[in-house]
Amino acid sequence: MNLVKAETRLKELNKLLDKPNWFEKGTHDLLDERNEIQFKLNSQNINFVLRGQNKYYFANQIAEFSENISKFGFGHITSDMIKNHGICFNQYSINNGYNQYCRDIKRFSSKEELIGFVIGYNQAISNFQREV
User: Fold this and answer.
1) Are residues 24 and 65 in the same domain?
2) E strands of 9-126, at which residues?
3) 111 lies in which domain range?
4) Which of 15, 105, 108, 121 has a CA-to-CA distance to 99 between 20 and 30 Å?
5) From CA 91, how far away is CA 100, in angstroms rounded?
6) Same-domain check for residues 53 and 113
7) Is the pTM of this model over 0.70?
């Protein structure tokens, strides 16, 4: 499924599930479909496997981090650099570009450390925006 079709289908599913009838047959199938499409959209620039119970949450946090860093930049990487070259997430690094050989934004010892950093960064941005 290409991006445009996926985004269109996601909008349709969100309309259908705006006020879901939990007892109606097929509602859970629509929820599963929506979650899978959202996961695929969120994990486009992730170059490692997300598995398990929290994969949807982690992919959403990484997508939120991408939005935040596109707005605010990160240290030596400006928001313009992010918009021009993109961002990718590898097992041991976050890079400004589309693969692990592009300019490092930040390096890690493991993907768990990377995900923890991303979640913490998002929480800090969220807390900052509430205070302002």
Assistant:
1) no
2) 88-89, 93-96, 103-107
3) 49-132
4) 121
5) 9
6) yes
7) yes
102: helix, strand or coil: coil
Torsion of CA 64, 36, 114, 74, to 10 degrees: -20
Tell me the CA distances in angstroms from 49 to 1, 81, 82, 113, 121, one per residue in order: 19, 26, 23, 15, 21
Same domain, 60 and 125: yes
pLDDT, tens only, 10-56: 999 888 888 777 778 888 899 899 999 999 999 999 999 999 989 99
Domain count, the chain: 2
Would you state the structure tokens that stand for residue 123, as one six-digit string? 């929480």
With cut-offs at 50, 70 and 90, classify the pLDDT of residue 125: very high
Q: Two tokens at 39?
A: 């996961």
- For residue 81, what are its two tokens? 């650099």
Do both 71 and 119 map to the same domain?
yes
